[in-house]
Specification:
- With 236 residues, the protein is of the alpha/beta class.
- The chain has one domain (36-229): Vaccinia Virus protein VP39 (Rossmann fold).
- Helix content is 29%, strand content 23%.
- The chain has helices at residues 46-61, 80-84, 99-108, 145-155, 171-181, 185-189, 193-203, and strands at residues 66-72, 87-94, 114-117, 130-136, 156-167, 204-212, 222-229.
- Strands 3-2-1-4-5-7-6 form a seven-stranded mixed β-sheet, with helices on both faces.
- β2 (87-94), α3 and β3 (114-117) form a beta-alpha-beta unit.
- α4 crosses α7 (193-203).
Amino acid sequence: MGADTPRRTLPLPDASKNPPLRLLPAGSLVTTGPVDHADWNFRPLIGTLSRLRFKAVVALLGSRRMTRLLEIGYGSGIFLPELARHCDELYGLDIHSENERVASILHDFSVQATLMTGSATDLPFPACSFDCVVCVSALEFIDDLPRACDEIARVLEPGGSCIVVTPAISKLLDLALLLATGQDASDDFKNRRERILPELQRRFTVVRRRKVPSFVPGFRLYTSLELVPLRGASAG
């Protein structure tokens, strides 16, 4: 992009919604892999439900401002503009190789982020690098979840926390997903969803745990958690 290229602006938040979200617009999204469905966030109905994941993260972040925040599995970068509002330095890691392209799109919207290609099972950061790690619908795609949990704990500084949003396990919801999108959840997740919460609880203490959405009794699409490493878990 040339120096004279005008910066684009993100849509202004809708003040009637709480909390407002600052997302990359649909027309600026790039598909970075077979499970990157960022466009779903702008589809009728399923988009409303999908955006609940981001609202759950914002609710757990609250009014805190992080020094260095890492999003694992940032995909198209759709959520990074919002996360940038909550930290001084923003980082993203994903297995795809579109990091420079996504960073360029973010730059067009005045969002600065350091994006890297790599695996959650071998994070390319020193120990105690971040005061917050965010994983939105990411852990269910990782085969070696124990190793990924160890790595997340390693890069968190003392007092740092990990915020996770993971999908619920429901045959009814899986059927609804198939009918709405043609996507078979069993193909994407296999049996990894069942292992996420037990594995997290072996390596972290759950500080807060919420069902999403919170306003419908007995109905859960996602689980959102804030976790801190167990004593000794972050040693690397």
